[in-house]
Amino acid sequence: MATSHSNMDETITLSTDSGALTVPENASPEQVAAIVAAVGAHIRDQRAAAALAADSGSDEETWDGNRFSFAGRLEGLNGSGNRVPRTAPTDGWTAAGRRDRFNR
Prior knowledge:
By secondary structure, the protein is α+β, with helices and mostly antiparallel strands. The chain is about 45% helix and about 15% strand.
C-alpha cells in the first residue's frame, strides 16, 4: 500500500491494487484502520452480492418480500386482503386486475 501526502487538502491517499482511498491527515492510526476496514467490508459485500447474482443466473422477478405489502394495498382498495399467489404476474397493474382470482 503506497501513501502520498497532500498539504493543500490535508489528506492522505492510500493506494492499493483495488484503487485509492483518501483519509484525513489528522486521523489517528485507529481511525484509519477503522475506515479501511469499513471500506474493505463494503467492497467485499458488493463483490459477494455480484457473484451471487451472477451464479443465480435468473433475472426473473418474483413476489418474494412483496406479497404481504401488495395484499395490504389490495385490502385498502376493496377491503379484501387476499393472499397473492407466487405464480401471480409480478407487474402490479396486471396482478391487481386479477385480484378476484387470488385465494380468499
